[in-house]
Amino acid sequence: MILTLTPNPSLDRTYELPALERGAVLRSAGDRVDPGGKGVNVSRAVAAAGGRTVAVVPLGGPEGALLARLLEEHGIEVAGVPVAGSTRVNVTLVEPDGTLTKVNAAGPEIATTAAEAMLEAVRARSADAEWIACCGSLPRGPGPEWYAEVVDRTHRGGGRIALDTSGAALTAALGRRPDVVKPNAAELSEAVGRPLATVGDAVKAAQELRGRGARAVLASLGADGQLLLDESGTYFGTAAEVVARSDVGAGDASLAGFLAAGGRGPAALAAAVAYGTAAVQKPGSAMPAPADLDPAPVTTTTDIPVSRALTEPTR
């Protein structure tokens, strides 16, 4: 079982448009609503693969009730924590060439009592969890050290934790030795305070995060592939080029694949790449099912192309 904690979940509404024209009345060629938030997406990917997953989420207002219903329809066990205010609604506009325009709401402010209730829900439901995946931005209310507290409590309970966040929350948690951190290239660059222009730059940045406490780093480099640095070595994973329909939730699908495959070594990295590649070919934030996965074109290697320029270098 994989338990996820998403402190700032959402309802994700996606509209597919023939063109995005500012100031115009636009008619959607297709639309969908999905339960959203990084940890929620991890749970959705695990459930789509037939695995058991529990999602700890704050729920507020009718939006929160709809989020809980959608999660249950996906086969996800919901450990909901009532909060004041309403669960946020995010909007994504998709153009035919794959360009995405996102509007993310701030979400409700989480009171101290509700933040503690989420930590207690994690403790109460994690006894048989193989992994706890703690994902996404922090809501208004909890300070950046809140994720560090989640890591501490997980380890005190004998569990393993994967942390997918950024900024001050990531920095504060590194010293508590999370078992895995999963930054993308921009988040990795922010964490080390310098731009990344090559795969080698990303490797050095990931090594720095390990030096600051992370036991393993799974770094997504977008179309360029993924890096894994853990106690067994440094690995680089790639897949065949595909036509991307939407990259919303692709990193979350990657993390789900990585954890479901054991969360260690090249086999887990290969699963992460396969899941992420399948996810970008799905509409909106839809998660891939096993039938969508194509592991054949996925390769992993310890021969890292350190001089390869990143397609999208960070600034």
UniProtKB/TrEMBL annotation:
Presence of the UniProt keyword ATP-binding in the record: yes
Bias type Low complexity, positions: 286-303
EC number: 2.7.1.56
Lineage of origin: Bacteria, Bacillati, Actinomycetota, Actinomycetes, Kitasatosporales
Pfam families: PfkB
Domain spans labelled Carbohydrate kinase PfkB: 24-290
InterPro entries per UniProt: 1-PFruKinase, PfkB_dom, Ribokinase-like, Tagatose/fructose_Pkinase
GO cellular component, one term: cytosol
Tagged with keyword Nucleotide-binding: yes
Listed name of the protein: 1-phosphofructokinase
Name of encoding gene: pfkB
